[in-house]
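pasting for ref
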Amino acid sequence: MNLKILLTKPLQQESIPKWIIITLLIVALLGFIDATYLTIEHFQNNIPPCTTDGCEKVLTSSYSEVIGIPVALLGSIYYFTILVLLIAYFDSKKEILLRLTMLLTPLGFLASLYFFILQAAVINAFCQYCLVSAVTSTVLFVFSMYSFAKYRE
């Protein structure tokens, strides 16, 4: 997919089914709740209850922070940004807001892919909350790229 086309070719906003936008909103909200919960737990020095035995190992690893910032906080900011853009789009119907939302989703997907690979290949443990974030960012990415591919003029 050519990035220049994605950035410049208008979306057929009226053609994008409302359920796609609502799905993006719901999934972003779930991602925000998940990441914010992990952020709160991080700052309270708690390990959340986990059905896998890898949460503590993942959440206390050296990869759980980037330059001293919890990865979960970065996730919260990402999902919050997606939420704000989608709500602003619903309010204004300005295409740029929807386009920005959809262009941000590859960043979340790539970050989640990176952290999934770290869990699988380096840390050798999985955190269920991190996996929820990986799924939500993947769903946001897939729905966004589908919409870009199908609903450009």
